[in-house]
Write a sequence for this structure.
């Protein structure tokens, strides 16, 4: 699996605009290879989005044929001040369906990575390195 982690610095006055633009990514729910896309805000109100793909080839096809159209249409590139993207490969995403059945809008969660897997987990209260879940950013790929 391929994990794409996107971090966007968003100015305070643009957070609602960014969130609305991020909501538009629901359009990718039928994209071959997409398992999930989810995200939230960190304590500094940077947006964090994780795209979880079944394989790199299908992700690259999405980037080649669909990504830029959505990104340019929702004008997201005009809203954030900076963007950083990292990629990881893992064998599995642990407990994702359990996580998604428990998480609700605004709830704190954390993300953990190991060389073999990653895991998203609901936590009791916000702490350093945690995120506040944004339910409207969740996209469940139809192939999962």
């Amino acid at each position: 699996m391929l994990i794409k982690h996107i971090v966007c610095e968003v100015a305070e006055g643009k957070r609602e605009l960014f969130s609305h633009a991020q909501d538009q990514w629901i359009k990718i729910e039928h994209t071959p290879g997409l398992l999930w896309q989810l995200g939230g805000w960190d304590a500094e109100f940077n947006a964090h989005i994780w795209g979880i793909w079944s394989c790199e080839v299908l992700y690259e096809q999405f980037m080649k044929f669909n990504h830029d159209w959505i990104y340019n249409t929702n004008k997201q590139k005009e809203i954030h001040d900076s963007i950083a993207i990292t990629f990881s490969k893992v064998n599995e995403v642990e407990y994702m369906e359990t996580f998604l059945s428990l998480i609700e809008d605004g709830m704190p969660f954390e993300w953990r990575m190991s060389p073999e897997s990653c895991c998203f987990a609901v936590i009791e209260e916000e702490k350093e390195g945690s995120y506040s879940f944004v339910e409207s950013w969740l996209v469940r790929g139809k192939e999962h």
Summary: The mean pLDDT is 93. Strands lie at 2-9, 34-41, 47-53, 82-89, 92-94, 108-113, 117-122, 131-133, 139-140.
